[in-house]
Specification:
Elements (H helix, E strand, L loop, with lengths): L2 H5 L3 H32 L2 H22 L1 H5 L2 H25 L4 H29 L5 H29 L2 H25 L13 H14 L1 H32 L4 H30 L1 H22 L2 H29 L5 H13 L2 H15 L1 H21 L1 H7 L3 H4 L2 H5 L15
Helix pairs in contact: 2-6, 2-7, 2-8, 3-6, 3-14, 5-6, 5-8, 6-14, 7-8, 7-11, 7-13, 9-14, 10-14, 10-15, 10-16, 10-17, 11-12, 11-13, 12-13, 12-16, 15-16
Membrane topology: Multi-pass membrane protein
Organism: Kosakonia quasisacchari
Keywords: Cell membrane, Membrane, Transmembrane, Transmembrane helix
């Protein structure tokens, strides 16, 4: 992604994405360094997997209860506070590594703190995007953000592995901290150099009422509620496929080395990038946003089904590219709708609640995937999972609310939820003034 492409969306979005990207690079280095350090210290895959499971669960299940803070404070100030809190935890890990001190309880506690911060920081960043770009450019901003994030997902593990191989896990942790310092600087520059209005509605509401308002909003905004329900079913089937089934299938069924798994993931990430840059915009202009999302679901299900039915790793690698494309077809369009149509003082909570509901079943899906694979086998289990994704598309067409919302162009989306579902945001019929 060229810098001038981001600059065309304005220097404010450029700084936001720069800070986010540097944080993501730091995160990749940090996660791999922590994994290496933990496995070297414990020599236990069980201890390591338990540590990861606890931190992932913390991020998912704390999200709806912390999201109100992103709508309560000045968003840039809040993000900066989150950044420096994470930097403090990383610095403590660096110090512990330097001193040779490893305590599994302390490490787990630190990762839970970082997960809790991440659970509210990411929705806050998504809620900030419409404030940083011109009207009508939210889709483009979300697409460029997806492209860059996909590119970092592609090269991040390579960078992290290189630092650990050339130096050590401890040095890699220090490099991770350095990248995070640069990320913090980008957000600080954004705050001091560019004026962004603070949220002026709802600051006096208590945490309880704001959190209650988040659950109320996601329920009453039927299009978002239906999206969350559909996404939870998709994630329940697809998250285990990519995290459990594919590694098992390549290593145990096809008896292939890990390099083929790397090629599969590379192809998937490449599909994300190419679709974000070009294909998604072309398809959306051609068939409209609603059909773009429907096509994404059908393409995803059919590609996953074909991967195991073909049984050829080279065809599967090509199909992984189509899977990456389909994820962009779905996620970019739904994220644009959510960010643009939601009232400004509810954006963080709406994004967090949507993320919470859609990923609620992920840990359960992963935990039972192994049992069903051993019971049914990889191919039947995957075909059933993929069929669920394909057959979920007609459910979208059955929802009038979803059809109506996804048929709007970006200009019509602005303020759509506030006008269409006032009961989700207003008390006793009174209207709030949108900031």
């Amino acid at each position: 992604m060229k810098i001038d492409v981001l600059m065309r969306l304005g220097p404010r979005f450029f700084l936001l994405q720069t800070g986010t990207s540097l944080g993501m690079v730091s995160g990749h280095i940090f996660r791999l360094a922590m994994a290496w350090w933990c496995l070297q210290a414990t020599h236990s895959a069980v201890a390591f997997s338990s540590l990861i499971a606890i931190s992932v669960a913390a991020e998912i299940y704390l999200k709806p209860f912390l999201s109100s803070f992103g709508d309560h404070f000045h968003r840039i100030k809040f993000i900066i506070g989150c950044q420096f809190a994470v930097l403090g935890v990383i610095a403590l890990f660096c110090l512990a590594s330097y001193l040779g001190y490893f305590n599994l309880v302390a490490i787990t506690s630190g990762l839970v703190v970082m997960s809790a911060i991440s659970s509210v920081r990411e929705p806050t960043i998504m809620g900030l995007i419409p404030d940083l770009v011109a009207e009508g450019e939210v889709t483009q901003a979300v697409s460029h953000r997806s492209t860059i994030n996909s590119l970092i997902m592609l090269i991040g593990p390579v960078i992290a592995a290189s630092f650990i191989s050339l130096f050590s896990a401890g040095v890699a942790l220090s490099i991770s901290a350095l990248f995070y310092v640069l990320s913090c600087i980008a957000f600080v520059i954004l705050f001091f150099k560019y004026d962004i209005d603070a949220i002026s509605t709802g600051e006096k509401e208590t945490w309880f009422h704001k959190t209650k308002g988040a659950f109320k909003a996601i329920y009453h905004v039927k299009s978002e509620f239906h999206i969350a329900l559909v996404s939870s079913v998709i994630n329940f089937t697809m998250f285990p496929f990519f995290s459990v089934t594919i590694p098992y299938w390549i290593s145990s069924e096809l008896k292939l080395p890990a390099s083929y798994l790397g090629a599969f993931e590379f192809s998937f990430a490449l599909g994300l990038i190419v679709s974000s840059l070009y294909i998604n915009a072309i398809v959306r202009e051609w068939v409209g946003r609603l059909n773009n999302v429907l096509f994404g679901f059908i393409l995803l299900g059919c590609s996953v089904m074909a991967i195991v039915l073909m049984g050829n790793i080279y065809i599967s690698i090509v199909l992984a590219f189509l899977c990456g494309m389909s994820f962009i077809f779905i996620n970019v369009n739904l994220s644009t709708l959510r960010s643009t149509a939601t009232p400004r003082d509810y954006r963080t909570r709406m994004s967090a609640m949507a993320g919470f509901l859609s990923s609620l079943a992920n840990p359960f899906g992963v935990s039972i995937a192994g049992w069903y694979i051993s019971l049914l086998g990889v191919v039947p289990f995957t075909v059933i999972s993929a069929a669920v994704v394909v057959f979920i598309a007609p459910v979208i067409l059955c929802s009038f609310h979803l059809r109506q919302a996804l048929s709007l162009d970006e200009g019509e989306m602005k303020g759509y939820y506030e006008k269409t579902y006032p009961a989700a945001f207003y008390k006793h019929g009174s209207r709030k003034q949108d900031a």
